[in-house]
Amino acid sequence: MATRGTKVERNSVSEQPHELAYEAKKESTTPEKVQAAKKAAGSGKRSAVEKKLENKK
């Protein structure tokens, strides 16, 4: 089992459709809004994206 990079994977939201869908379901929003929040945050960090999504509610 590979352990290299697992923390990075947990702490970021990628551009992959399943990642966007997961975050959208978790935050009760749409994948498009998650992608917009990611762009607005200027970062792929999960905490920054979630903070941007909270401000939009």
Overall description:
Residues 37-46 have a biased composition (Low complexity). Residues 1-30, 47-57 have a biased composition (Basic and acidic residues). By secondary structure, this protein is mainly α. It has a domain at 17-54. Helix content is 67%, strand content 0%. The chain contains four helices and no strands. The radius of gyration is 11 Å and the shape is globular.
- Judged by helices, strands and strand pairing, the structural class is mainly alpha
Alpha plus pi helix count: 4
Contiguous uncertain segments of 5+ residues: none
Succession of helices and strands:
HHHH
User: Distance between the terminal alpha carbons, to the nearest Å?
Assistant: 39 Å
In a nutshell, what does this entry contain?
This protein is mostly helical and 57 residues long.
What characteristics describe this protein?
57 residues; mainly alpha; 4 helices; 67% helix; 0% strand
List the helices and strands and how they pair.
Layout lengths: L5 H5 L6 H11 L3 H11 L4 H11 L1
Helix pairs in contact: 2-3, 3-4
Protein name: DUF3606 domain-containing protein
